[in-house]
Amino acid sequence: MSTPILSLRGVNKSFGPVHVLRDVDFDVHAGKVTALVGDNGAGKSTLIKCIAGIYTPDHGDFLFEGKKVEISGPRDATALGIEIVYQDLALCDNLDIVHNMFLGREKKRGNVLDETAMESLARKTLDGLSVRTVKSIRQTVASLSGGQRQTVAIARAVLWNSKIVILDEPTAALGVAQTEQVLNLVRRLADNGLAVVLISHNLNDVFEVADNIAALYLGQMAAQVDKNEVIARQVIELITTGKSAGVESAGAKK
Amino acid sequence: MSTPEVTETASLKGAMADYWSRIKAGDIGSLPAVLGLVVLCIVFGSMSSVFLTPGNFANLLTQAAAVIVIAMGLVFVLLLGEIDLSAGYTAGVTGAVLVILITNHNVPWYLALIAAICVGVILGFGLGTLVARLGIPSFVVTLAAFLAFQGILLLLAGEGGTIRVEDKTILAVENSNLTPTLSWVFFITVSTIYVLIGLNRINARRKAGLKTELIKLWVLKTVGLLGITGLAVFALNVERSNNPDLVSLKGIPYVVPVILFILVIGTFVLSRTAFGRHIYAVGGNAEAARRAGINVKRVRVAAFMICSGLSAIAGMIFASRQNSVSPTTGGSSTLLYAVGAAVIGGTSLFGGKGKMRDAILGGLVVAVIDNGMGLLGYAAGIKFIVTGLVLLISAGVDAVSRRGASV
């Protein structure tokens, strides 16, 4: 396989006496959807927060496109092209789609907001993702359905020529049709060449859309395997017991 | 590259349908205030022969001015979902600073005004810091300030109780008018700029291949707005003195351009700058704003500074209207009328929704009730009850429309 766009090697993180991440290795490839699965408390959130620069790991290396990098704050992550779509979306209901997509990073001419440039770029991004479900991009987010909100949040993440998009439980609150919509979008992101990290509890979603599955168990990477090499039962075993017959564990690879 | 598709809202009918669906979705904006204003004017106009005269119209504007300016400042704070209960007495304190500097220390009016605004901004900085950095609810902080500022005003006004102002410029704000010719020049200049900005925006969107507002609708709205304001200028240019030989009263009161100036600047800041956008964002979802990299605390403090700074301008208007500043300046119902004005105009108490123009429309509604019922000879008690009910209805409409908006 090609060089991963992002590799984590031996990442450790403790909060006081609680050792949350233990020697975690994690690879993310461009053009692939990497699913990150694990039970509650396995360390998924901590891991992505380390990638996003919200937490600084105690030790461990980050390799970005093969080169060692330091991520010591959210700005560093953003500068590398890493964007996170949080579970609670972080959208402002009272603002329209364009405003939300550019929130905090508005395009300006002098001191004045450049609305036409922002709207054009927002339109282009949504079209690039083949989003056809949004009627007008000047409607407020309050008037959107859950799936559409998720779409806006994802579109905001890819607006900045980002290279890695991390999605935290994007389908958790959605119905069947909207889940399908969002999963299609996730697939398209990867097909457009982005590296996508999908955190999910739903193995149906994972098997439908992921190329690669990484399972965390009690803060350790149980295994990171190609989707085609495993079946759902094995993944469940990895999540619940940290090992599964026939799956090479992450530690054994070294 | 694909060619940009130029789409327009298909027809006037389509635009109306769009508007209707927005209203149903809870985005009613200033509609209740405009309808209320029309209904009130018809009712009072039919019941009182004086209400619809040019003289009373000019009176109404000068009566409403100070409350409108405070309300315009409050819009910034209300947009964050906060409140400033001390804005009325901030106007009183800063008005006192202005008048004391002019009358007791012979400071030129413009320097005194700058000093008063600075005092207002500093007071706002204090309030904003307590709210944003210490996390004390704005209701409590500004309630405390309401009492404290009242005390400061009492101390400043001193034993005599009132400080008179005799500066011609300050007095002119509420008591003099532009000449009729200047009034028309002012109207034409402002309308031309308004039309040019509108055309420029449509043009820029066309060029970028974005959906533009239906031209027919824009023309209709612009002609309507300019027609009504033109009519107002015409009415204000009619001689309204009972004794024109002795003293002539005609033209736009000076306070109108002052309010218009604040309206334009405020609207520009709120809708065309990143800072304005961040105010809406913080009011809509502070956590989302924080995650988007917005300095939420700084936005909060700045909003309180703007609110108190504008209150200082209201203080000047009070001083001009009363020819003096007294311990009750900016007191009694001033603040409640101002909050009422912003809310009646369509600014949400829950934050995130509102415009500068809401303050003007709502302020006019409050002033029309006050003025109209006064003319009809109702007691002050009845006026308060009616204004209170109108405010309650507006807040109710706001709350209900919010419920409609949540999915």
From TrEMBL, chain A:
Protein's UniProt name: Unannotated protein
Q: Which SUPFAM superfamilies match?
A: P-loop containing nucleoside triphosphate hydrolases
**Does the keyword field hold Glycosyltransferase?**
no
According to its UniProt record, what is one Pfam family this protein matches? ABC_tran
Q: Which UniProt keywords apply?
A: ATP-binding, Nucleotide-binding
Q: Which InterPro entries match?
A: AAA+_ATPase, ABC_carbohydrate_import_ATPase, ABC_transporter-like_ATP-bd, P-loop_NTPase
Pinpoint the ABC transporter domain residues. 6-243
The yes or no answer to whether the keyword Kinase is present is no
Q: Name one GO molecular function term.
A: ATP binding
